[in-house]
Structures are given as C-alpha cells and as structure tokens.
Amino acid sequence: MRFDINKSENINSSKIIVLMKTKFTLLFVLLNMFYFQLQAQDRIISGTVTSEPDGVSLPGVNVLVKGTSTGTITDFDGNYSISASENDILIFSFLGFETIEESVGARNNINVLMAESASSLGEVVLVGYGSTRKQDVTGSITRINAEELLKQPALTPTQSLQGKAAGVQIISSGAPGSSPVVRIRGTGTVQAGRDPIYVVDGIITDRIDNISSEDITTIDILKDASSLAIYGTRGANGVIIVTTKAGKIGKMQIDISSYFGVKDVLSSVDMANSSSYVDFTNRAFGFQRFDQEQQYDTDWYDEITRIGTVTNHNISVSGGTEKMTSYFSANYFEEEGILIGNDYRRLNLRSKATYNLSSKLKFDHNISLSLNRSVPKPFSTFTTAYKQSPIVPVRYIGGSFDGRFGVPFDNSGARFNNVGNAVADLVLNDEKRKNLVLQGNVSATYDFTDYLSGTTRFGIESGYGKSYTFTPNLEQFLAGDPTREVSDFDSPNRNTLRVRKDDFYHWVFDAFLTFDKNFSEKHGVKVTLGTTAEEEQNDFLEGTRNNVPEDSNLFSLNNGEQGTDVVSNALSDKRRLRSYFARLNYDFDNKYLLTATIRRDGSSVFANTDEKWGNFPSVGLGWLISNEEFLNNSNFLNTLKLRASWGQLGNQNIPLNALTFDSNLGTVFGPDQVLVPGSTITAIIDENVGWEVTEEYDIGVEFSFLDNRLSGEFDYYDRLNKNAILPISLPDAFGASGITLTHAGKIRNKGLEFALNWNDKISDDFNYHISGNITTNDNNLEEITNPFAFEQQGGSIDNGQVTKLLRVGQPLGSFFLLEVEGFDERGEFVYRDLNNDGEIDNDDRQFFGSIQPDIFYGISGGFDYKNWDFNIEGYGNAGSMVYNGKKAQRFGGENIEASVANNIFNFDNGSNMNPAPSNEVLPSSTYFLESGDFFRINNITVGYTLPDVFTGVEKIRVYALAQNPFIFKEFTGFTPELPGNGDPLASSGIELNAYPSVKSYIVGVNLNF
C-alpha cells in the first residue's frame, strides 16, 4: 500500500491514522497466526504398543490421527512413529483388541497397552523370528497364558502344560527334579531326537527346567509344518516358544508368591503279607520251606517311602520409564520326594531389561542363572521293595543290615531269594549332584522406516555340573545276604569314590530384516529375511579311586588308595548349524491369507558334502470367511477361518555313525607259530546318511459364535517321516558283522485335534468357563525301504525277556507277546500255538497294542464369584497298553501282589486268572499286559482374594490346591504314565524301576504391591 500525501488532497490526517492502525492490526494478526501455526505444527510422535496384561509387543496395530487420513501401523516389535500435533488425537485399533484414543498434548512418546476383546482371532501369537495376529496365521499354533500355567504348580512349566493343548502329549514322572517327556503330534522317529525345541525370548535351547512358571508370560506351541518350517532342521518335533516377563512403564511393581505342600503316592500296590507269602512260596517250591509262624511281616513299600514336601517362593520386581524398563525375579524351589532321601533344590535368578535408546533404536538384554542340587536315589528300589519277602526284617540286632552284631535272621540258614534290602539300597547309596546353568542374550532392533526394521541378537547357554558317588562295596555285599560274613568279601576295595565333572555350551546368533507395510488399504505384505548360526559341544571328566575315608568331608580322590585310579574323559563333536531363511506373509482385504517359507540349513553332523545342506519349504493358505460381506450382519457367527498348509521339516539329531573295531582277531602263522595280532572293522559307515525329512499336511478351522462366548479350533494333520534312520545288518559278503545306520523306513502320524472353549459372564459378580480338547493319533511304521533292515527287539524287563518289536504296519513301541489262552491241569498257563507246530516259541508271538494312545484329552472348568475363584482340570488317554514288568520278576522266592497270592487259579473257581505258584521265569505274554487307559484329576483349586485392607498392597490372594488327587485306571500297578527314557523301543510304557505318580495338597498366597 502506497500513500502520497502531497498528491492526496482528499485524504486528511485522521484517515491516515486509521489506515496506519489497520496496517498494524493486520500485521499483528498475521504474526499471531504465524506464531500459533508454529505452536501447532506437526512433530514426530513415537512409541510402543503392547498387549495387556502380559506386555507382549503388538505388530500391525493401526495408528490413525483422528479426523484425518494420516496413519501408520506398528512393526513386529510393536513400535510406531507418526506425524501429529499437540491438539491431535491418536486412535489405536487392532482386530481382537479394544480401540484406544490418546491425546497427543506435549508428549513425544506415547506407549499404549491394549486390552483384548472377546475374540481369540485378534490375539497376537509368536512365530519364528517375529509375531503376528492369530487371525493372520495359516498354521496350527496354540497359546497358553501365564494364568493357565500357574493353575498347575510344578518344577518345570512343561509339566503344567499337560492337558491344555490339543496335539501335545506330556508324560510326567513323580520324581523330584525330573522333566516330563513331550511329544507333539506323535513319535515320528526311532533313532533320531524326538523332543521339541524351546525358544526362550528368541534363543533356541533344549530345556526350560531352569525357568519358573512365575517368570513366564506366554507359551506358544507351533505344531504344523507351515509354522515350523522357518526353524528348518530344528522344527521336526515341534517348537515351544516361551516369552518371559518384562518390565512395564510405570511405578515399581513387586509380586510375591509362596506355597507349601505335602506329597504321597497317588495309587499304591498291595503286596502279600507274610502268611500269604509263605503259603504261596511253599507251594512254588513244592515243600514246606518256610514255617507259617513268622517273626517279621515287613511292608517294604512303607519302609522306603515317606510323606514328601514341596516348597516354592518367588519374588519379582519390575517397572520402568519411557526410556528403560526392567524386570528381576528370584525363585527358590525345594522338594523332598516320597522316596526316602530323594531330595531336590533349585535357585533361579532372572534379569531382563529394555532400553529405548531413541525413537528408532531399541536394545534388550536378559540373563538367567539356575543352580540346583539333588540327592538321587535308585528308582530300582521300588522294584526291590516289590520283590523282597515280607518275612525279611529291615535291620538285624544292633541296627545293621546284616548279622555282624548278633545272630542274623536266616530262617534255618536257607537263602530264600536273590533280592537285596531296599532300605539298605537307599541308605548305602550316597550320591550328590550340583548343576549350574547360565543363559543370556542381547538383541538390538533398529527401525529404518515405519515399515522396515532390522534385528540382531546373540544368545549363549552354558552349563556346569559336578557329582560324586560313594559306593560302600563291603556294606552292600553284607546287606545283600544276611548270612554273609566279612571274611566272605574277597575284594580289596572296601569302597569306591567316583567324581565327575560335566560342562557344555551352546550359542546362537540371529540377524534378520522385517518389511511390514500395507498398500492401498487392502494389501498387507510382511517379509522376513535372515540368517542364523549355532554351535554346541559337551564334555566330561570322570575319575574313580578305591578305599577313601568313609567321611563325606574327606571325599576326595587324593585321599583314596594310590594305584586304584581309573580316569575316563569324552569330548563330543562340535555340532555347527548355519541357516538362511525367508518368509512372506500376504493379506488381501483382511480375508485371504498366504504364508510362504523357505529355510536352508547346513549342518556339520553329516560327512557327505552333498548331504550337509537341506532345503525346507512350506506354504499356508487362509480364508477369513467371517470377513466376507455375506456374513457381516450375522448375529450368530463372530469369526470363521479356514486354513490349509503343507511343508517339510528336517531332523539332524541323529546318532553319529562310528567305526567299530574288533581287535581280538590274532592268529598263529609260520613254522614258529608266531601269534600275529589282527583287527577288523565290524560295521560299515553309510556316508550318505543325512537329514530325516518330515513332510506334513494340515487342514484347520477356527471359529467363534454367540458373541465370542463359544470358540474353538479343529485340525486334521498327516505327517510322514520319509527317510527314517534304522539299523541294518549287511550280509557277510560285505566283510562287516556289526550294525550300520542308514535311511531305511517311513513313519507316519496322522490324526485329528479338536479344542472347544465356552466363556460367559452372567453378572459383574459371576463368570464361568468350560474348555476341553481331544486328539486322535494313528502312529505307524509304514514302510521298510532297505532290504537289509531287521526287526528290532526291545522292551527288556531284566529277566532275559523282551516285550517289543519294530515291524512294518505296527505303531512304534508295539508289544510282541505270547497269548495266554487258559490253564492246564496243573494250573500253568497254556499259550496259543499260533503256527500250530506243537511248540511254543518266538514264532508264536503276535502284536497286542502299543504304548501309543489312540486318544488323549484334557478338560477344565471354573468360575469366579465376587472374591472367590474355583478351577478344576483333568487329563486322560485311551487306547494305549502298558506292561507290568515288575510283576514278571519272580525267579525264586520273590514276593507277589496280594491279588495274585489270594486269587490263584483252580478248577473250582475258574474266574481267578493267576497261574499256580512257580519260581520259573515266565515268557513275556498277555498276562503281564494291561490297559494304559486312565483319567486323572490334575488339580482342584479354591482361592479367595482379600478386599483392599492393607495400605500399599494392591492384592492378596490365598488358595488351596489338590494336585492329582484322583485317578481312574484299569492298570493294577502304580501308574500308567511311564515315560521311561522316551525311547518307544526301550523302557517307555513298562513299569519296572519306575517312579510312582504322586498326589499333592498345597496351600499358597500371592501378594501384589
């Protein structure tokens, strides 16, 4: 604007003043507008979105500036960044979670906790090298939350999983410090490793018995090839992903939990008393060997058992700021077993921290220490107590196990059986073990953009163990037979001390990129590319010396007799694995899903270069039918998803082939008859041995109805081990008489899984839930592909007899026995002459079931009413068989069960099915085979949460729990749950030297500050 006063005769001074005021007013308004614009301009807001209450990162959450089209999604770690102003409102939405709105204000960092809605498809589950929404999963994954684990207190979290996941069979032992056998979708191998792997906070390990359940947030069980293929050779037997607790932003949180309980045998076995024993044994020998009037009537099971106890204390401290969160816990667990002297103690320490170094860079580290001490006792004591005669006393005059201090009981000098003293076995077995396990990892994640991030992490696991075993040879010799004298001991070694040290290490390195972006609001693409490397090795050093001082404070090899040293040492081969992997997840219009995975593994286990590398692909398809328009207005159906997958998995945990030599082949040559030493290789190595490859198909349906109150999942699976490793015996023409391992068979597992859950809230004061799952599995050795493969026998019962056979068309762990048809005139068994040749031998054996159940299932239910909570869980299986191996131990004078002694077959009472008394070793037959079907109540819990009556205490809950209080079974032994060593051809499914199941009664308290 231009003013010329000289030429503007019509403009007076007042007008000029008005115009000047207007000019300055406009300038002031413009300056203020500019100032406020500066104040309201957009800036970068970042943060992390996690689920409530477990704090698991949520990928794929939609973050939108309200009233605009500006938006983004969180990456696989739940991180996001978005441009917004202080007056804006951010909307966080995610399928399956409640939508949240957050005002920006002056904050630059906004972290959000999202609560799940009722639909389970919105739940976030962990997959290999990342996480995803359950609705986007095309494979079979089951999630177990922390509150479900804590309903079943146990030493190791895997015990608490029993009955909670379809397709997962867990066979527990009652022994202190023991870990259960875990089988996911059946047993698919004979010679290779059968156990699943565990992934703890991203680090692969073979064990989680060093983790307390109180430290766990979630467990995700990967079951099918589509979800497992990214683990390649590590995923053949399933993967269990464990996420431990982490700190949360906010004030410091302190949680304390403690419980105490007592334990006893769940189901006992009644043995014959002295009167029944004497009558039975005299008839077995055919003459009056023992008098009816006996001085002793010993209950050997009562003598070796006690009321056990269990104690658990846990404390955790957590908290954090927007820059750092941390979590620390300490756990002490102690158990006194039902077997006298069998004790176990464990201390766990765990620390975990997350540092948000910037809006793009996050750093994590965690470390755990587990120290355990155990006092093992031989489980064979249970069999010894079963066999020992009730007329034998526990101790003699002077309190010893023999007669050195007085006249021993010898029943007129007759030696009446070959069984030792079960109590002496416990007292004289002096063994102690210590183990230290360290696990730790560090990881860093950098967000290059809001859709591209990179993660690298390194984890290491190291273990150290030491033990000693003191064997009082003289004392054991004397306790074995009360008629023995010290002068009868003809060895110079009165005792032996064995000291052993073990250590192992295992490290894992991962590095991967994740691209996660939506295009045109309908196309969701997520790509993961990465590499991983592993290495592990084990070794031990063991030494023994004789005649050390009989004082545990002096148990040192240096104190033993010189010249009696024996040293042994072994160092395992290093196992190295190098892998590359890629995964594509594609989602179109939130309806149609694709997952494609490829992993390439290279292993040092295999000698042949051509066999070192293997490729393991998978593909999965999914259809979210409930998101189709024709179902949008359904008042009945909430979610419905159909999925199908195919994939291949590898197993590198095979026994290493080794050359075996026979050096005792010397012969005499020449006129001087000189002995020339000779040796030869007795077995041939198959250098072409490689991965066992499992191929699997899976079809599944996931659904929820009635406002998500009813939900469930159904799967059909078919998995085939295409090249199972079996032993073969080559003809003599090959010049080797030993056993060679090679790919020689096909093993198939196929079945159905069905899970159903009902949750309903009647009022603010009352809600209840009922759930159940059932799995059918058909296990079968489908084909033998090598003509030199032989039928493996197994299942020894320590009396010269075997019980199992591996044969085409039969499940692994099948019992191969003679069939008892009836009794002859002497009351002895008559066996079926299968081939009608007039002789009873191995050719007359046939198959009678296996240790593999046809069905296993779990159920649970409970309710919350005001401050009260109640829960009950059960587990069972059907279709399996178990062998009563301890019952087959009568060789001459051993005890028998009361039911046997009192129900001997006679022609007047043909219903009694026990043979006439005998001291002969009976062949393996259907007489000893029993049903393994059972149903057990796993736990019954009643809890009460106290009202807020203590300042500073957020919550106090007290509870009482009955664990394994009832079992319904047909088996006459201690327990039909017989994990053995996990080998289907060995002791699994045979009750011999097995620990009984136990029941526990526990009281506890949880405090939150």
UniProtKB/TrEMBL annotation:
Protein name, as recorded: TonB-linked SusC/RagA family outer membrane protein
TM spans (from-to): 16-36
The keyword Transmembrane belongs to this UniProt entry's keyword annotation: yes
Species of the source: Gillisia mitskevichiae
Occurrences of domain TonB-dependent receptor plug (ranges): 134-239
UniProtKB keywords: Cell outer membrane, Membrane, TonB box, Transmembrane, Transmembrane beta strand, Transmembrane helix, Transport
Its membrane topology: Multi-pass membrane protein
Compartment annotation: Cell outer membrane
Record family assignment: Belongs to the TonB-dependent receptor family.
Matching InterPro entries: Beta-barrel_TonB (IPR000531), Beta-barrel_TonB_sf (IPR036942), CarboxyPept-like_regulatory (IPR008969), Plug_dom (IPR012910), Plug_dom_sf (IPR037066), TonB-dep_OMP_SusC/RagA (IPR023996), TonB-dep_OMP_SusC/RagA_CS (IPR023997), TonB-dep_rcpt-like (IPR039426)
GO cellular component: cell outer membrane
Pfam families assigned to the protein according to its UniProt record, in alphabetical order: CarbopepD_reg_2, Plug, TonB_dep_Rec_b-barrel
Ranges of residues in domain TonB-dependent receptor-like beta-barrel: 396-947
Primary location recorded for the protein, binned into one broad class: membrane
